[in-house]
Amino acid sequence: MTLGIIGGTKLSISLGNKYLSRGLNVVFGVREEFEAKQIEWKILKMQNDKVFGYCEAMEKADVILICCENEYLPLVCQCLSQYDKTDKIVLDCTNGNYNPNFACNTCYIQENSGYDRVLKGFNNLGLDYPKSDPLELVKETYFCGDNESDKFKVKKLIELIGFKAVDAGNLNNAPLLEAFYHLRKQISHQKNENIDYHFKLMSV
After folding, report:
1. Are 63 and 93 in contact (CB under 8 A)?
2. Residue (of 40, 46, 72, 51) closest to 5 by Cα position
């Protein structure tokens, strides 16, 4: 199985390195004008089989993790629209821009790509991860989707790199996962401290 991680973000490189360390075949998709400034990206770009454009990385992947900035989602959707609607598993790891009536990125991806096989996961980490969790204390992430077989595969992928996978139900709960992310960011902002806050799920 090949994992395609789309986006030149901290989250992309962090998840990618975690999966590479577990022996998975990982390719990265970045925009054409992407500049490899971080040492991790420079090392990857020195290898001929790791970093490609968005469409080429998706073509090589069986499972696609979307970890790009929101401004590049139209390009991602354009590439995704080229495939059969059930050809690959797509895991949206992004969050829409915050406002009281914010639109969900997962819905945007489905509507603008015409792709059906989309799930939500890892979005609670944020695109700046692990900067938002420098000690890597966050050990759980939430996922949702409509296909039970795909959800099982995503659950195993999440667990493979040491996270507890919390099933949040059907894909129509994706806006709730994004709201969860925005709530923790608002709490961090209100605290007016140079630290991030995260939630932990408890059963009582």
Report:
1. no
2. 51
Q: Is 23 left (phi over 0), alpha (psi -120 to 50) or beta?
A: left
The 8-class DSSP code of residue 146 comes to S
- Residue 197: pLDDT band (50, 70, 90) is confident
Look at residue 102 and tell me whether its pLDDT is greater than 70.
no
- Report the DSSP beta bridge partners of residue 144: 120
140-144: strand order across its sheet: 51-53, 25-30, 2-6, 63-66, 89-92, 118-121, 140-144, 164-167
Torsion of CA 141, 74, 109, 51, to 10 degrees: -50
Query: 70: closest CA among 28, 42, 20, 112?
Result: 112
Q: Half-sphere exposure (CA, 13 Å, Cβ side) for 201? A: 12
Burial level of 65, CB count in 10 A (0-12/13-18/19+)?
Answer: buried
Distance of CA 57 to the CA centre of its chain: 15
Cα within 13 Å of Cα(153), Cβ side: 18
Tokens of 130: 């692990």
For residues 166 and 201, the answer to whether their CB atoms sit within 8 Å is yes
Residue 202's pLDDT is what? 86
Number of residues that this document lists for the chain: 204
